[in-house]
Amino acid sequence: MTVSRPLRDLMSLDGRTAVVTGGAGPLGSVLSSTLAELGARVVVIDLDEGASQATADALDEVLVGPHLGIGANLMEAGVASRIVDEVERVAGGLDIIVNNAAFTGTSGVPGYAVPFDEQTDEAFLSAAQLNLLAPFSLVRTALPLLRASTHGSVVNVSSIYGLVGPNMRLYDGTSMGNPAAYGATKGGIAQLTRYLATVMAPGVRVNAIAPGGIARGQDEQFVQRYEALTPLGRMATEDDMRGAVAWLASDAAGYVTGQVIAIDGGWTAW
Ligand SMILES: NC(=O)c1ccc[n+]([C@@H]2O[C@H](COP(=O)([O-])OP(=O)(O)OC[C@H]3O[C@@H](n4cnc5c(N)ncnc54)[C@H](O)[C@@H]3O)[C@@H](O)[C@H]2O)c1
After folding, report:
1. Could you give the CA distance from residue 267 to residue 42 in angstroms, rounded to a whole number?
2. Residue nearest atom 16 of ligand 1, based on CA coordinates
3. pLDDT at position 38, please?
């Protein structure tokens, strides 16, 4: 039996440049190191210039670089052009975008992760701007570079709450919330993924991961209820997301586009 290229070669990101938004955050930094481990030069985008650069520097210490950190607020007008111009100037091209930055259920935005009747239009709009508009704008602005790459791949980060509604009983007796804008924007990015996959084909692939809840020291009652509702019996870790993102970013997923892959221990399977 003959195969086109060895799997090890298909998974290699040698010579490629990857942008990871929210790249200094808990999941973003793990995904940045995942792509760097496979050979990509990683551009870490996060709010704080120092944190972005520190994450890139930490990658440089152990993984082939040079990696780059850019401080950017993805909610500012014109930011997508600034990022794409800077990446082109420094790296000469762009092959991979991981749209990871978002307001999550724990972001301290007023009027956001509060009971439904207290959620505000302003918080909803802010979430839509960061979680949905920013990925749209960045990918559209980067389109010429992604097309020029012969390996263009976009990986969006959705959520199980973009696939199913929240079970509010999980949160009873805790201070945790699950905002409408979170699920709506994460569902929106799942659909944006399918839209972009069709309009950017055949040159660029666009997929998404939909992570389950990541264990971060949440309220014990919540964790117990969450785990009981998860076929694999535990919450996710950042580490659980590495394999799918590595695969989707690489040529090993060369015939995969428009897919939203739940990495949730089976949460959405029953
Ligand atoms: N944590 C979970 O349980 C979970 C579950 C499912 C999906 N997700 C998704 O995974 C992704 C990462 O989640 P996380 O928990 O690591 O998030 P986080 O809030 O801990 O980190 C997000 C990062 O984005 C950065 N960021 C925020 N606003 C920004 C802006 N305006 N411009 C630039 N950068 C900005 C933050 O500084 C931070 O480093 C998100 O898309 C989230 O929706 C998380």
Report:
1. 31
2. 27
3. 97
DSSP assignment string, 130-176: IIIIHHHHHHHHHHHHHHHSTTEEEEEE--GGGTS---GGGGTTSS-
Instruction: Write out residues in the chain with pLDDT < 50, as ranges.
Output: none
Residue 159's pLDDT is 98
Task: State the pLDDT at residue 96.
Answer: 98
> Which of 19, 46, 83 for a ligand 1 pocket mutation test, highest count of atoms within 8 Å of Cβ?
46
Report cis status (omega within 30 of 0) of the bond before 202: yes
For ligand 1, say whether the CB of 69 is within 6 Å of any of its atoms.
no
Ligand 1 in contact with 75 (CB < 6 A)? yes
Query: What is the model's pTM?
Result: 0.98
Which pLDDT value is given to residue 22? 98
Q: What residues contact 1, with CB distance under 8 A and at least 6 apart?
A: none
User: For position 103, what pLDDT does the model report?
Assistant: 96
Please indicate whether residue 112 is annotated as part of the active site. no
> Do residues 186 and 158 touch, judged by C-beta distance below 8 A?
yes
The Cα-based distances of 207 to 124, 134, 144, 269 in angstroms read 24, 16, 18, 20
> Quick one: 127 exposed, middle or buried, by C-beta within 10 A (0-12, 13-18, 19+)?
buried
Instruction: Please give the number of the atom of ligand 1 that sits closest to the Cα of 107.
Output: 19
| Cα-to-centroid distance, 14 and ligand 1 (Å) | 27
Regarding the beta carbon of 22 and ligand 1, being less than 6 Å apart is answered yes
Cβ–ligand 1 contact at 20 (below 6 Å): no
For the chain, list the domains and their CATH numbers.
13-264 (3.40.50.720)
